[in-house]
Write a structure and sequence with these properties.
The protein is built from 3 helices and 7 strands. With about 150 residues, it is of the alpha/beta class.
């Protein structure tokens, strides 16, 4: 399955992968060495924690390698009048008292909600993609439907 990323997203992923492979793997290997010398491994909680961290690390490395392998690079079209990867979208909730939300649309696996970034694979990202300024979109959630109006695309 293709994963849509910008060139910048792909570079960030490659840097993270390089760091995990070259730095974090060595750190965990060293911690494993240290904790394995602490006695019986079946009752060594420090060793078990490091083994668990190693599993998470290897899982993340596989995830990033797959993302790179399946990546389809998309170019942002400057001045486009529709939502695309890289767009900053300002929305107003239709049933609110002027509540405004602003999101940057990012590629697959790059979401960071605390930074205001949502992925094109998220429910909101999917319905915003390719919509023009002024469009009203409806997001279906377990709590019902939420309507947003796109008031600005940067």
């Amino acid at each position: 399955m293709e994963k849509y990323l910008t060139k910048e997203d792909l570079e960030k992923i490659k840097k993270e992968l390089d760091y995990l492979k070259k730095v974090k793997r060595k750190e965990i290997a060293q911690r494993l060495k240290e904790t394995s010398s602490m006695g019986d491994l079946t009752e060594n909680s420090a060793y078990q924690e490091v083994k668990e961290a190693q599993g998470f690390l290897e899982g993340r490395i596989l995830e990033l390698e797959n993302l790179i392998r399946e990546a389809k690079i998309v170019e942002r079209i400057e001045g486009a009048q529709w939502v695309q990867i890289g767009s900053i979208v300002t929305l107003i909730l239709e049933k609110s008292k002027g509540e405004i939300e602003k999101y940057k649309i990012v590629g697959t696996g790059q979401a960071n909600l605390s930074e205001g970034e949502i992925s094109i694979d998220s429910p909101l990202g999917k319905i915003l993609l390719d919509k023009p300024e002024g469009a009203i979109v409806t997001l279906k959630t377990p709590l019902g439907k939420t309507k947003y109006k796109i008031i600005k695309i940067e």
